[in-house]
């Protein structure tokens, strides 16, 4: 998984101000499964953002690093810096959109 964290760190460019929404999930988590279609429809709503879904069970070092103990867990990065965590238990497309909109303006 260290190779993977390096890949994530390359994907999250520290020299960039780009925002990336990262979803940590596990294949067997039903909340992850119900969240997936919402997450997958976000890029159409926010074409300037980048989106990445990671299987947390495959990348435990990464999960530890960013404190993503429970899944699904959504972190918004600016460059390589975690800026905000989506904490709503109400995981709908609307709450996700509101979260992104409030964080990115």
Characterization of the model:
This protein is α+β, with helices and mostly antiparallel strands and 105 residues long. It has a single domain, classed as Glutaredoxin (3-Layer(aba) Sandwich), CATH 3.40.30. Helices cover 42% and strands 24% of the residues. The protein has helices at residues 2-11, 30-45, 60-65, 93-104; strands spanning 19-25, 50-55, 73-78, 81-86. Strands 2-1-3-4 form a 4-stranded mixed β-sheet, covered by helices on one side. Strand 3 (73-78) and strand 4 form a beta hairpin. The longest helix has 16 residues, at 30-45. It starts with a helix and ends with a helix. Residues 16-100 form the Thioredoxin domain. This is TXD15 protein. InterPro entries: Thioredoxin-like_sf, Thioredoxin_domain, TXNDC15.
Total of DSSP H or I helical runs spanning 4+ residues: 4
Please give the order of strands in the largest beta sheet: 2-1-3-4
Anisotropy-based shape: globular
Mean pLDDT: 83
Low-confidence segments, given as residue ranges, are none
Radius of gyration: 13 Å
Return the CATH topology: Glutaredoxin
Query: How many β strands by DSSP?
Result: 4
Described by its quaternary structure, the protein is single chain
Pfam families: Thioredoxin
Protein name: TXD15 protein
GO biological process, one term: cilium assembly
SSE layout and pairings?
Layout: H1 2-11, E1 19-25, H2 30-45, E2 50-55, H3 60-65, E3 73-78, E4 81-86, H4 93-104
Parallel strand pairs: 1-2
Antiparallel strand pairs: 1-3, 3-4
Pfam family, one: Thioredoxin
Domain Thioredoxin: 16-100
InterPro entries: Thioredoxin-like_sf (IPR036249), Thioredoxin_domain (IPR013766), TXNDC15 (IPR042418)
């Amino acid at each position: 998984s260290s190779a993977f964290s390096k890949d994530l760190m390359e994907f999250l460019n520290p020299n960039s101000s780009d925002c990336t929404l990262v979803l940590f999930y596990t294949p067997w988590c039903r909340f992850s499964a119900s969240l997936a279609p919402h997450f997958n429809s976000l890029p159409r709503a926010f074409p300037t953002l980048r989106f990445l879904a990671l299987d947390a069970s495959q990348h435990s070092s990464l999960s530890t690093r960013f404190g993503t103990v429970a899944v699904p867990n959504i972190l918004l990065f600016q460059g390589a810096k975690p800026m905000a965590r989506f904490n709503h238990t109400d995981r709908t497309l609307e709450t996700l959109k509101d979260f992104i909109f409030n964080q990115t303006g």
